[in-house]
Amino acid sequence: MGLNPYMNRNNPWNSYRQVATQTASPGQLVLMLFDGAVRFLEQALLGFPVEDPLERIQTINNNILRAQDIINELNYSLDLRQGGHLAETLRGLYEYFDRRLTESNVRKTSDGIEEVLVHIRTLRDAWSSMLSQAGQTRAAQTADLCAVG
């Protein structure tokens, strides 16, 4: 019986991913989730030109389901009380993404995947920019504190 090397606990890649997720800030974790959703949606799109019907369906279906799992995790982690209007807007977007991906999966069409991919990339880039700016602000504040005195 062959074992999947990616499931092996001694696999260096699994160790790296586990440490990365355990040491990442909440903001970095969200960025990692966006990156994962993009990766799975891109993989789903690669299934459309596959000629073997079983492989085509499995590639599309499995990757859409993985992307939906990530989108649902992003949705469920929203704090509507503290997040206010932005959290409500994101919840609506995530639910829309989930519906569009379900439609694409059932119909085996790429249009919903492509649409969601554009939006997820936009959210990912905005999130990355926000994290970068927050990091620069913290660095400037630290430099100011060090300069005082």
How is the CATH topology named?
Four Helix Bundle (Hemerythrin (Met), subunit A)
Overall 3D form: globular
Mean pLDDT: 84
In total, the number of strands is: 0
Sheet-strand content, in percent, reads under 5%
Structural class: mainly alpha
Number of domains: 1
The CATH H-level superfamily is Flagellar protein FliS
Q: Architecture, CATH level 2?
A: Up-down Bundle
**H/E order of the elements?**
HHHHH
In which range does the helix fraction lie? over 70%
Q: At the first level of CATH, what is the class?
A: Mainly Alpha
State the low-pLDDT regions, or none: 1-7, 142-149
Radius of gyration, in Å, reads: 19 Å
Report how far the terminal alpha carbons are from each other. Answer: 67 Å
Describe the sheet with the most strands.
Answer: none
Please give the count of helices.
5
Give the secondary structure arrangement, pairings included.
Layout: H1 12-23, H2 26-46, H3 53-76, H4 80-107, H5 111-147
Helix pairs in contact: 2-3, 2-5, 3-4, 4-5
